[in-house]
Amino acid sequence: MNASRFSKERKNLKRQLERFLTYLLVEKNASPYTIDNYGREIEECMAFLQDQGVQKWADVARPALRCYLAWLNGKGYVKASVARRISELRSFGRFLAREDVVPTSPFRALSSPKVPKRLPMPLSVPETVALLNAPDATTPQGLRDRAILDVLYSGGLRVSELVGLNLNNLDWQRNELRVWAKGAKERIALLGGPAVAALGAYIEQGRPHLLRDGTTNAVFLNRFGGRLSTRSVMNIVKKYSQLVGLQKRVTPHTLRHTFATHLLDGGADLRCVQELLGHARLSTTQVYTHVSQSRAREVYLHSHPLAKATQNDEADHASV
Q: Is 283 part of any domain?
C-alpha cells in the first residue's frame, strides 16, 4: 500500500471515532468529562492497533486485541482502568456495527477483568458537620462554598447536576431543586432548612459580588462571573476536607454517598432513597445498604457492653 492510501485509511479510523464522540454528545447527552475520556482512551487503543498494522476497524482481530490487553497490563493499569477501556471499546464497536462501518463489533471478543467492588466511604455525622462549617461565611466565595457543600449533602446531588443549576431551577416555596440527571432525565432534589438558608445567603449576599455582566442564569459562579466548573467544585470540596483535617479522600460524590448512607442509618426506606438519588434501578441503590450494615456493626462493636468481650473471646479461641 502506498503512503497516501495508508494515510487515508488512518484518517478514516479517526473520522469514525469523531462521529462516535458526536453521537455521545448529541444522542446520549454525555458529559464533557465522559466524552474526553472516551476520545482519549479509544484513540490510545487506535494508535496501538495502527502500530500493529490495522488499517480499518473491520481489520481488528483477536491477536491484536490480546496484544493490546497485554500492553495495558504492562503499563501497570489497574483492573478498573482496563475494564473501563474495554467498556468504552465495546460501546464504540456497537456504534460501528449500527452505522454499517463493520459487519459486527470488532471488540465483541474482549472480556473485562473482574473488578472487586469498592464500597463507598461516607463521612460520619461529626465529619460532615465540620466540613459544612469550614467555609468563611463573611466572604462571597465563602458563602458560595458553604452553599455548594450544603446543597451537595442535603440534596444528594451529582456534581454535574450542581454546576448545571440555574436560578429558575430553584423552588423556594417547596425547598426543591429541579435538576437534570444522567441522560437528560429531570428529577426533583429536596433541601433541608440549613441548605436552604446557606443557598439563600449566597444568592442574596455572595452571588451579586461574583456576577460580572449580569446576564448569566447560573447559580454557582466562579471569580470571573462565569458558571463554576466540575473541576472547580472538586477542588473546593478537597480544599475544605483538608482544612478540617479529614483523613480520607473526599470528593463531591463522597457527599452524595454520605447523603444516602445517613438517610438509611436514620431509617429511610430504600425505595425512597432510590427516588431521591435519581437511580433508575434499585440495585444501584442497594450498595448503600451494605455501607449502612457496616456502620451498624461498627456502632454495635463500639457501644454494646459485651461486644468487646465477645471479640476478645474469639481472638483467644483463634490463638489456641
A: no
pTM above threshold 0.70? no
| Residues known to be catalytic | 158, 182, 253, 256, 279, 288
**pLDDT tens-place string over residues 7-66:** 555 678 899 999 999 999 888 878 788 899 999 999 999 999 999 988 889 999 999 999
CB 45 within 8 A of CB 76: no
89 with 143, same domain? no
Same domain, 248 and 140: yes
**Which CATH number belongs to the domain containing residue 19 in this structure?**
1.10.150
Q: Is residue 220 part of a domain?
A: yes
Looking at the fold, whether 135 and 88 belong to one and the same domain comes out as no
What is the extent of the structural domain holding 54? Answer: 3-98
* Distance, CA of 162 to CA of 153 (rounded, Å): 11
C-beta pairs of 121-127 under 8 Å, 24+ apart in sequence: 121/248, 121/254, 121/257, 122/254, 122/257, 122/258, 122/260, 122/261, 122/262, 122/291, 122/295, 123/246, 123/248, 123/250, 123/254, 123/255, 123/258, 125/262, 127/244, 127/246
